[in-house]
Design goal:
Elements: H1 2-6, H2 29-32, H3 40-46, H4 49-61, H5 67-83, E1 86-93, E2 101-102, E3 105-106, E4 108-110, E5 116-118, H6 122-126, E6 127-131, E7 147-152, E8 159-163, E9 166-177, H7 186-204, E10 214-228, H8 229-233, H9 236-241, H10 266-281, E11 286-291, E12 297-302, E13 305-306, H11 307-327, E14 330-333, E15 347-355, H12 372-387, H13 389-395, H14 399-402, E16 417-418, H15 420-431, E17 443-444, E18 454-455, E19 467-470, E20 473-476, H16 486-510, H17 517-532, H18 544-552, H19 561-564, H20 571-579, H21 585-638, H22 646-678, H23 682-710, H24 721-726
Parallel strand pairs: 1-9, 16-19
Antiparallel strand pairs: 1-2, 1-3, 4-5, 6-7, 7-9, 8-9, 10-12, 10-13, 10-14, 10-15, 11-12, 15-20, 17-18, 19-20
Helix pairs in contact: 4-5, 7-16, 10-11, 12-16, 12-17, 16-17, 21-22, 21-23, 22-23
The protein binds adenosine-5'-diphosphate and magnesium ion.
C-alpha cells in the first residue's frame, strides 16, 4: 500500500515557526520555563502591590477576591497578555467530557465614541456565561434551563496558548450550573483538596502544633503511543475510537523486552523536544521521558505539583501532545489499550500530602518505626483504601480501562495496597509494640573498583500493584492513560479526608481514657491497622492465586465499568461525599448518568465500526483474494494439474469457513447492539453493552485476524501491527 510508506517521506515539522516555544532550541530550560504563564514574577511586575497581595492571599490562604482586586488583576493580566501578543482571552474549563473547553472573546472593543480599544474588566475575569445544556450534565441541565457559569480559579495560573497565527490568554475556571451544582471536574477536585487539607491539618497538629497549611501533591506519569499519521489515517478504528478493533499481533511484539528505556527513535525524540518545549513554556515542569515496554510506547513525567495545578497541567499536556504530534506528521495515542497483545497505557498518579513548610507527611524518614506522624498518615491512607476500594475502582473505570485492567500487564481490577517488606515489618512490630530497628538498610557494597557504592532504598517496587507505596508517596497505578486525573484524585482526597476525620474523633474519644496523647494515637492506629490489614498485599497481583485470596479477604473484584459505577450511588458513597462537601446527591447521580452514557456510546461506536470495517474493508478484500485463488485453481485444472490445485482449494475453504463465522457473529453483534440501544433503563443498557455486545468483538476479531494472515499482503486494506508499531 503506497499510502503507508508515502507518509514517511512527508516529514516537515516547524519550518519557519514563529511561535515563542518553537524558537527556544538549545537554550537552557530555566530561561524559557513558564514564560507564557502569568506566574508570580509577571504578577508582581504587572500588578500594584495591593492587588498583588490580594491575589497571593487568595492563592495561598484561600481568601475570596473582591471585585476591586479583580479589576486590578484583570488590567494587569490584560497588559501582560497583550505584551506577549495575545488578542483574545477565554475561560479554560473541564466539563464532564473529560476534555477541556474554551470560548474565545477578544480584548478588542469599541468605546462610546467608536474608537477601538483593548479592555478587560474584573467582572469578565471572574465570570463567563455558557450554554450549560450543550455539555454533558447527566440531567442537571435541561435545554430550556441552560444557564451555566464558568468562574475563574485564581489558584491555577493563567497562560497563553500559541497557534501559528495568534495567541489566546487562557484563564483556568470552574464550571457550574445556575443553581451552583458542579458541571465539571475541577470544582469537586477543589472541594476535595479543601477537605483533605482541613482534615490532615487537624491530625498533623498532634505532631506539629505550629503547622499552617497542608496540600496534596500529585506527580503523574503519562504513557502514550506514537504512530505515523498516514498509517493512523488509514485505520478507521484508530481514527474514530483511538484503538485498533482489528489486527493480528505482529510476529515481533514486546517478547524481546528491548523497548523499555531503549534509545528513543530520532523522529520521536524530535517530536518530544518540540512538545516538551511547548509544555515547559506553559509552566508544566516536565522532566522525564523514556521508551515504555511496548513498541512505539513512550512515557513522560513532570515534577510533582499541588494536585489542582498538576491536574490542569495534565489536561494541557494531553492537548499539546496531540497538537504537536500532528505538526510532525505523527499521532499520539493516549487510549488505554490501543493494541491487543502488547501493553496498554496508564497514568500513574504519585500522590502525597505535604505541609507548605516542606514536610512530606508520607516520608518515612530515617527510622519509620519511630516516626509517629508518618505512621499515622501512612496507616490512615491504607484504611481509606480499604474502606473505599470499590469507589476507588469506580473512579478509574471507563470503557478503555476495561480492556487494560486485569489483562496481566496492568494492575488488576482488585484494589490493594503494596507496602513493601521493609514497611510491612515496621507495621508488624508497631502492631505488636515491639522494638524494630527500622533504620535504612544501609549501603549496597558492590565490591567493584571505581563504581560507587549506593544507598539501598527502603522499599522494592511492585509494578503489579494498583496502589503501591514508593519511597515517600503512594502511586495510584490503575488510572487510565486518557482520563482527566481530577476524578480519581477527588475520590482519593475525599476518602483520605474522611478517614482522617474519623481517626481524629477516635483519638479524641481515646483521650478520655488516657492523659498520654502518644499512647492514645498508638492505640487507635493499631485498631485502624488491624481493621485495614486485608487490603495490604505484597505479592504478585497478576497471579491467579491473588484473585482467590482477595475473594477470601472480601475485597471487591468488579470486572466491568457499568457494574463498577454502582458504587457512585450507594448510600455510603452519597453520605461520604455530602459529609465532606464534595458532591451532593444530585451531582453524584448526574455524574453516574454521564459516565454510563459515555460508556454505552463508546461501545456502541466500536460495535458499529466493527461491523463497517468487517463488511466494507475486510470481507471484500477476502473475497477478492479468494477469487484470485479460484482463477488459479481453474487455470491449474485447465492445464491438467488437478491434484496441484488442492492446496489452493484448502485456502479457499478456510476463507469460506471464516467468512461464514464472521457473518454469523456480525449478525449476532447487530442484534445485540440494537437490543442494547433499545434498553431504556440506564444501568441495564450499560450491562448489555458490557456483557452481550462487547464479548463479540473478540470473536469477530479472531476470524478477521486469522484472515489477515492468509490474504495477500497487497490486498489487505488496513495497515498492519508491524507497520503501526515498528515504523517511525
Ligand atoms: P517512576 O520511576 O515511578 O517511573 P518517574 O520519574 O517516571 O518515576 O515519575 C515519578 C513521579 O512521581 C514524578 O512525577 C515525581 O515528581 C513524582 N513524585 C516524586 N515524589 C513525590 C511526592 N512526594 N509526591 C508526589 N509525587 C511525587
Ligand atoms: Mg515512570
Amino acid at each position: 500500500m503506497s499510502i503507508r510508506s508515502e507518509s514517511l517521506l512527508n516529514i516537515n515539522p516547524n519550518k519557519q515557526d514563529k511561535r515563542f516555544s518553537g524558537n527556544v532550541k538549545d537554550k537552557p530550560i530555566s530561561e524559557y520555563y513558564s514564560r507564557l504563564v502569568f506566574n508570580d514574577e509577571s504578577i508582581k511586575k504587572y500588578l500594584m502591590k495591593e492587588a498583588y497581595e490580594g491575589l497571593r492571599n487568595a492563592i495561598e490562604n484561600g481568601q475570596k477576591i473582591d471585585l476591586k482586586t479583580a479589576d486590578f488583576v484583570a488590567v494587569g493580566m490584560r497588559n501582560w497578555a497583550i505584551d506577549h501578543g495575545a488578542t483574545h482571552y477565554t475561560h479554560w474549563f473541564q466539563p464532564l467530557t473529560g476534555r477541556t473547553a474554551e470560548k474565545h472573546d477578544s480584548f478588542f472593543k469599541l468605546d462610546r465614541h467608536g474608537n477601538p480599544i483593548e479592555a478587560f474588566s474584573g467582572k469578565e475575569l471572574i465570570k463567563q456565561e455558557t450554554d450549560g445544556s450543550s455539555f454533558p450534565s447527566g440531567g442537571l441541565r435541561e435545554t430550556h434551563r441552560a444557564r451555566g457559569y464558568t468562574i475563574w480559579d485564581p489558584s491555577s495560573p493563567a497562560f497563553i496558548m500559541e497557534a501559528k497565527h495568534g495567541k489566546t490568554l487562557c484563564i483556568p475556571a470552574i464550571f457550574i450550573s445556575y443553581e451552583g451544582d458542579s458541571l465539571d471536574l475541577k470544582t469537586p477536585l477543589l472541594k476535595s483538596i479543601h477537605a483533605v487539607e482541613k482534615a490532615a491539618l487537624e491530625v498533623e497538629k498532634y505532631f506539629d502544633p505550629e503547622v499552617k497549611r497542608i496540600v496534596p501533591n500529585l506527580g503523574w506519569e503519562q504513557e502514550y503511543f506514537v504512530v505515523d499519521e498516514a498509517l493512523y489515517n488509514a485505520r478507521p478504528d484508530l481514527l474514530l475510537c483511538g484503538r485498533t478493533l482489528f489486527g493480528n499481533a505482529s510476529a515481533r511484539g514486546q517478547q524481546l523486552d528491548d523497548h523499555y528505556f531503549a534509545q528513543i527513535p530520532e523522529r520521536v525524540v524530535d517530536f518530544m523536544h518540540d512538545f516538551e518545549n511547548d509544555c515547559l513554556t506553559l509552566g508544566i515542569p516536565i522532566t522525564t521521558r523514556h521508551n515504555e515496554v511496548a513498541p512505539n510506547q513512550f512515557e513522560c513525567a513532570p515534577n510533582f505539583e499541588t494536585a489542582n495545578i498538576a491536574a490542569d497541567h495534565n489536561q494541557l499536556l494531553m492537548s499539546i501532545i496531540d497538537l504537536v504530534a500532528k505538526r510532525h506528521n505523527l499521532r499520539a495515542i493516549i487510549h488505554e489499550k490501543p493494541f491487543a497483545g502488547i501493553n496498554g497505557s496508564g497514568k500513574h498518579n504519585n500522590w502525597s500530602l505535604a505541609t507548605t513548610a516542606g514536610k512530606n507527611l508520607l516520608s518515612p524518614g530515617p527510622n519509620p518505626s519511630e516516626n509517629l506522624s508518618f505512621l499515622t498518615f501512612f496507616i490512615n491512607v491504607i484504611a481509606a483504601i480499604n474502606n473505599h476500594a470499590g469507589l476507588l475502582r469506580a473512579s478509574i473505570s471507563n470503557a478503555g480501562n476495561d480492556y487494560r485492567l486485569g489483562a496481566n500487564e496492568a494492575p488488576p481490577a482488585i484494589i490493594s495496597v503494596f507496602t513493601g517488606d521493609h514497611l510491612s515489618n515496621v507495621l508488624k512490630s508497631f502492631m505488636n509494640d515491639e522494638n524494630f530497628d527500622g533504620t535504612n538498610k544501609g549501603i549496597l557494597d558492590l565490591n567493584l573498583e571505581k563504581i560507587a557504592n549506593i544507598q539501598r532504598d527502603d522499599t522494592e517496587r511492585n509494578r503489579t500493584s494498583p496502589f503501591p507505596f514508593t519511597d515517600n508517596r503512594f502511586e495510584f497505578r490503575a488510572v487510565g492513560s486518557s482520563v482527566n486525573v481530577s476524578n480519581p484524585m477527588t475520590v482519593l482526597n475525599t476518602i483520605v479526608a474522611d478517614q482522617l476525620v474519623i481517626f481524629k474523633n477516635r483519638v479524641e474519644e481515646e483521650r478520655k481514657n488516657t492523659e498520654d496523647l502518644e499512647k492514645a494515637i498508638k492505640t487507635v492506629l493499631r485498631q485502624v491497622l488491624k481493621e485495614s490489614n486485608d487490603v495490604i498485599f505484597n505479592g504478585n497481583n497478576y497471579s491467579p492465586d491473588w484473585v482467590i485470596e482477595a475473594e477470601k479477604r472480601g475485597l471487591p473484584n468488579i470486572k466491568s465499568t457499568p457494574e463498577a459505577y454502582d458504587e457512585y450511588l450507594t448510600q455510603e458513597t452519597i453520605d461520604l461525599f455530602e459529609r465532606n462537601h464534595v458532591f451532593n446527591r444530585n451531582e453524584l447521580q448526574a455524574r453516574y448518568n454521564v459516565a454510563v452514557e459515555e460508556y454505552c456510546a463508546k461501545i456502541d461506536i466500536e460495535a458499529r465500526l466493527v461491523e463497517e470495517i468487517s463488511k466494507a474493508h475486510i470481507i471484500p478484500a477476502c473475497v477478492q483474494h479468494q477469487n484470485k485463488l479460484i482463477d488459479n485453481v481453474k487455470g491449474l485444472v485447465n492445464i491438467g494439474l488437478k491434484d496441484e490445485a488442492e492446496v489452493q482449494k484448502d485456502s479457499i475453504r478456510e476463507i469460506s469457513q471464516r467468512l461464514k463465522n464472521l457473518n454469523q457473529y456480525l449478525g449476532e453483534l447487530r442484534k445485540s447492539r440494537l437490543e442494547a440501544e433499545a434498553e431504556d433503563e440506564m444501568r441495564a443498557r450499560g450491562v448489555a453493552f458490557a456483557n452481550t455486545v462487547k464479548p463479540l468483538f473478540d470473536k469477530i476479531r479472531a476470524e478477521a485476524d486469522a484472515l489477515e494472515l492468509i490474504v495477500d499482503d497487497r490486498n489487505w486494506p488496513l495497515p498492519k501491527y508491524r507497520e503501526l508499531l515498528f515504523l517511525h
